[in-house]
Amino acid sequence: MRQTYGTLLPGMKLCDLAGKLIVIEGTDGAGRTTQINLLRPWLEELGHAVLDTGMTRSALAGDGIRRAKEGNNLGRVTQSLFYATDFVDRLENEIVPALRAGFVVLTDRYIYSLIARAMVRGVDPAWIRSLYSTALKPDAVFYLRLGMDELIPRVIFSRGFDYWESGMDFYPGHDMFESFCNYQKALLAEFDRLSLEYNFETVDASPDARIVFSLLKSRISEVLATNSHRPSIPMLESAAERFAASREIPAASVFGDHGTREVELLLRPFTAATNGNSNNHSHVAGD
């Protein structure tokens, strides 16, 4: 059964979360979003239903965080509470329902980035960990690690320096380049400590994106091959109904003769797991 890092959200059950929660972590410029964009279609081609999510995407707090950051005056405690609200809203309304339906959830950053950012800014470590104690423990965390020598040119030749990713709120009055270097060095050190505490799998993010993608595919295939959270028939039906609703397919046709190829692809991993369960039961009927 799944576990959290301390506490359960009210009404949350962990016994029926059949999907896989896979986290892609790393500092700004490490290539997280690029890898998510490669991994999602690959997983879908294999027949998996996929949800990808990330920071500031919640309906409740996402827009508020973006507006607050435009003013460059968001305090560290308020910032932490804002991001925690965004995370818990996505956890309750996106991540948990998707896992319950058997989806693979890919998340671009997780609580570890939020903890690292807060701790670099001097927030109390015990308090910030308690703030995210409701987080589910992932099936895998891949930490895309990029050293400063590779990180700086990537940022310069992509979108340039950002106020918040340069830590200008933390190093006021500094040159933005100097601030960026100091802040990212501090973040890297914090990520390295968290990687030991939370057992990240560190991936060298300096090679070409396709090389990193190939490595991630291999490791994620191993994660998906484990059957610690097998979906059941009710979950299969739930996944199909959610998918049908998103595509405006009549729910009654999902399991009928008029189901689409897309639905068939969605159900393939669930059907395989269910058949596996049936075969296992036939061998232990006399137990």
What would a concise description of this structure say?
The chain is of the alpha/beta class.
Question: Topology, pairings included?
Answer:
Layout: E1 20-25, H1 32-45, E2 50-54, H2 62-70, H3 76-100, E3 104-108, H4 111-120, H5 125-131, E4 140-145, H6 148-156, H7 176-197, E5 201-204, H8 209-225, H9 233-246, H10 261-283
Parallel strand pairs: 1-3, 1-4, 2-3, 4-5
Helix pairs in contact: 1-8, 4-7, 9-10
Question: Would you mind describing this structure in some detail?
Answer:
- The structure is a single chain.
- 52% of the residues lie in helices and 9% in strands.
- The chain is α/β, with parallel strands linked by helices.
- Strands 2-3-1-4-5 form a 5-stranded parallel sheet, sandwiched between helices.
- Helix 1 (32-45) packs across helix 8 (209-225), helix 4 (111-120) crosses helix 7 (176-197) and helix 9 (233-246) runs antiparallel to helix 10 (261-283).
What name does CATH use for the topology of the largest domain?
Rossmann fold
Q: Which structural class do the helices and strands define?
A: alpha/beta
Shape: globular
**Would you report the number of β strands?**
5
> Can you list the strand order of the major beta sheet?
2-3-1-4-5
Indicate the percent of residues in helices: 40-55%
Strand content: 5-15%
Cα-based radius of gyration, to the nearest Å: 21 Å
Report the CATH superfamily of the largest domain: P-loop containing nucleotide triphosphate hydrolases
Instruction: Describe the oligomeric state of these chains in a short phrase.
Output: single chain
The secondary-structure element order is EHEHHEHHEHHEHHH
CATH architecture of the largest domain: 3-Layer(aba) Sandwich
Helix count? 10
Main sheet: strands, sense, barrel: 5 strands, parallel
Low-confidence stretches: 228-237, 249-287
The average pLDDT score comes to 82
Query: Kindly, what is the distance between the CA atoms of the first and last residues, rounded to a whole number of angstroms?
Result: 23 Å
